[in-house]
């Protein structure tokens, strides 16, 4: 089952990083403008981020296996469409559709892990997933460089999308055979008095939440340089407040909201979601800035830029596997140590750029300093998922996973905009090494906030006398408001 789940996870997240090295070839092959190239990235990121929570909730209601298969099929079909695109406009339309497929399938992965893995097994499963997340971000540029180098720019960029097709078909085949069939809707609940199962999709909540995420992400997706775009941030905050008010009212009327607000009152879930948001603000631009520096600053190829990150990817894979086992013993302090390691790696990478410049050994030094960032991913992403979702009942696993992944996507969008913005703004007055140092300093600030959140949560858990193992395995129930009486007995059973 875990093999089934990590295949599309790797495929979807690699599509985020592999396209970065394909942009020059796409521009040449389709005569795309700068704005059209921006939408190759932004269109995917936008629909991906918008659908995570609604799709997670829909999977909780109609069945996660069903939504998983739909998402994989859609992502595979749209990847083929992108590979065969004849113009920049059609490519962008296919990329938007790819984001829809990715947004549908990703929250089902976390929901299925919540549903079928428990205790230490769940922690190890999230550790494996964390390893694949790290490898997807690192292997993408390397694989893209290899494909374009082997097939040439005209055909190579098409294969960076087409490579998803065989992986998607294989996933559909093994998922159909290996994922357990659902005999009931995991998110359905019985009406009062023992009536038939009732499912609430909360369409108003879906629209309000989608609008708030859209408005928050827009300024960071480089869709326009106009100053008015920043007005969407306060509008997004108002939409988010409106969504919270609606969800509270909707639940008060006896319905199941898109996201149970009791999740947000659960301290472990709240701390973990804020932590991963801040961590991805610092993490996402690290890989991008390094690739830009190696190619534009040092004059090497996309393939060389990918090779530099291979040791970090391997370190991330090893650390993720270890983190999945150690989190049951160490708890939140393990995540804090991982965040501290990431800060050290970011500062070291910036200093290497300044101290070594264009020295012949600079690539080796950058690869070595970046190992710390890769290893930190393994100690943060998977263990944080285990700790954050520990108290989430199985029936809400998809929506909760969608909330966490939305934090990652919003954090990545903000981080890429800020990190690359600092890099290019500094280049206007300084040289490449100093610009890289400034960018990594800005990233380390966000990662430091994640470190502080991890330390505060670790102390909170210690003061409550919470055992480290209990912090991971967690209760399988959720404190709900007294005006409702959802049936959580199924979520309390490990076999539900």
Structural notes for this entry:
- This protein is mainly alpha-helical.
- The protein folds into 2 domains: 395 residues, MFS general substrate transporter like domains (Growth Hormone, Chain: A, Up-down Bundle); 45 residues.
- Helices cover 78% and strands 1% of the residues.
- It has a two-stranded antiparallel ribbon with strand order 1-2.
- A hairpin with a 6-residue loop joins strand 1 and strand 2.
- Helix 1 runs antiparallel to helix 7, helix 3 runs antiparallel to helix 16 and helix 11 runs parallel beside helix 16.
Short overview:
The chain is an all-alpha fold. It contains 19 helices and two strands.
Number of strands: 2
- Look at the structure and give the mean pLDDT: 82
CATH topology call of the largest domain: Growth Hormone, Chain: A
Strand arrangement in the largest pleated sheet: 1-2
Number of domains: 2
**What Rg do the Cα atoms give?**
22 Å
**CATH homology group of the largest domain:** MFS general substrate transporter like domains
Q: Return the structural class.
A: mainly alpha
Coarse shape: globular
The second-level CATH architecture of the largest domain is Up-down Bundle
What is the N-to-C succession of helices and strands?
HHHHHHHEEHHHHHHHHHHHH
Distance between the termini: 17 Å
Oligomer: single chain
Q: What's the main sheet like?
A: 2 strands, antiparallel
Query: How many helix segments?
Result: 19
